[in-house]
Design brief:
There is one protein chain. The protein is built from 14 helices and 20 strands. It has 427 residues and is an alpha/beta fold. The protein has two domains: 176 residues, Alpha-Beta Complex (2-enoyl-CoA Hydratase, Chain A, domain 1); 237 residues, LarA, N-terminal domain (Rossmann fold), CATH 3.40.50. A six-stranded parallel β-sheet has the order 3-19-15-16-17-18, with helices on both faces. It has a six-stranded mixed β-sheet with strand order 6-5-4-9-12-13, sandwiched between helices. Strand 12 and strand 13 form a beta hairpin. The protein is globular and about 70 Å long. It starts with a strand and ends with a strand.
Length: 427
């Protein structure tokens, strides 16, 4: 039996139904540190490319701490108490600190979600504010990048004396890695500049995906470079990023300069979670790794993207993504009105900047469903799954039946139990 995480459950699939023994594509999960708070403290004591935080702040400073939302398991409940003590030791009181939730263009946090993210103790001590990308009163223009993107950033961050960015580093569909500079753009950026940044996933001709905008790649990646330039306009004082394993436990912490500490964190994460295999399979079974990696379809799609690397063209993929919070964007289905990739790309160029976020995710999914049969086990309605070009199933075993019908007997299988964590690549 194979155990696969799905939302907050663990499901089982018998390998007896597969014609060949599946190849497990999962390295050893990185071991958790013995004491997460101590690891944060060590990172603060040994910053990368920066003086210690206590040397960069003064008692009179107004400090904004940028914190990710629930879609990122950053373990800010462990990070923030240590960080606040570091600030207090430098003379910065809790009253001078504001937590700014880096929602990007995600939905606002409830009060309970805020408390879950930062921990009840911090929630009682510090003022907390949600970023709103669509409120022009909240955001102020700070400059234009070399990519022509006019950057607007939350006024609280711009007008504060010091900005500290927290978050977690992991693979990202088109920014290469999450964390670091993403706390600024799209974290606390205006909607239009976020959409402009995401449009860089397409080539300048707008006819195809930019191959440099891919998971695990920063070199020449225009999305990443645009984000980095935006971060420089804010000049964050300090960065604290965690690396977490499949169990949402801290395995490492980097702190210091927003670019140098982030680069080191990417190097470490890549070493833990990039996997190579010597061929593509006919059938791929992939779990996102459970909640919150499959909290909605936008997050679930990241697993589909990574798993596509090891699926042969014309193959079948089963993805387990609960999507308990739905699609993640109520307008996402509107993109599935086109008949060809060319029509989709033209429609994207014409309408994307009007506010239709996640179009790049829809475009990539459209591309994949033209090259493979993607079967989704999910809480989403069947009609929604079908509209997106995928096949819904009521039981995960039904996907094996579909694979047999399409591939015949003797098909090979790759099994990816933590698809959002491990970046799998065929050599």
């Amino acid at each position: 039996m194979i155990e696969l995480k799905y939302g907050k459950q663990t499901l089982k699939l018998s390998t007896d139904r597969l014609p060949l023994e599946p190849r497990l594509l999962s390295g050893e999960d990185a071991p958790a540190v013995a004491d997460g708070a101590a690891a944060v403290g060590r990172a603060l004591e040994n910053p990368i490319g920066s003086p210690r935080l206590g040397e960069l702040v003064s008692a009179s400073d107004r400090v904004v701490v940028i914190v990710p939302d629930l879609t990122r398991a950053a373990r800010c409940d462990v990070v923030l108490p240590v960080l606040l003590e570091e600030l207090r030791a430098a003379g910065v009181s809790d009253r001078a600190v504001t937590i700014l939730f880096a929602l990007g263009m995600h939905s606002p946090n409830s009060q309970a979600e805020k408390q879950q993210i930062v921990g009840m103790g911090v929630a009682r001590r510090v003022r907390m504010v949600d970023h709103d990308a669509r409120d022009p009163r909240q955001n102020v223009v700070v400059g234009k990048t070399s990519f022509g993107n006019e950057i607007a950033i939350n006024r609280l961050a711009v007008e504060s004396d010091k900005v500290i960015v927290t978050g977690t580093i992991g693979f990202h569909l088109f920014a290469g890695f999450g964390g670091g500079r993403k706390g600024i753009l799209p974290g606390v950026a205006g909607a239009e500049c976020t959409l402009c940044n995401h449009m860089l996933t397409l080539t300048t001709l707008g006819s195809r995906w930019n191959d440099a905008a891919r998971a695990g790649n920063l070199e020449g990646n225009p999305v990443h470079l645009d984000m980095a330039e935006a971060a420089d306009m804010v000049k964050p004082t300090f960065l604290v990023n965690t690396l977490v394993n499949c169990e949402k436990q801290i395995v490492d912490v980097v702190a210091g300069d927003v670019h140098k500490a982030f680069a080191e964190g990417c190097r470490l994460y890549d070493g833990y979670y990039r996997l190579k295999t010597d061929g593509k399979a006919d059938f791929v079974i992939a779990s996102c790794g459970g909640y919150p990696k499959d909290i909605n379809f936008i997050q679930t799609h990241k697993t589909i993207e990574y798993a596509m690397n090891v699926l042969r063209e014309g193959g079948v993929m089963l993805v387990l993504g609960a999507c308990s919070r739905g699609l993640g964007n109520k307008d996402f289905l509107d993109w599935f009105q086109y008949g060809t990739e060319e029509e989709f790309a033209e429609g994207l160029k014409a309408t994307y900047l009007k506010g239709n976020r996640n179009a790049q995710t829809a475009y990539r999914l459209f591309w994949k469903t033209r090259r493979a049969t993607i079967v989704l086990f999910t809480q989403l309605p069947d009609s929604t799954v079908q509209r997106m070009g995928m096949v819904p199933v009521d039981k995960i075993e039904d996907a094996v039946t579909i694979a047999r019908e399409k591939l015949g007997d003797g098909f090979s299988t790759h099994l990816i139990p933590s698809g959002a964590h491990f970046l799998v690549e065929a050599e």
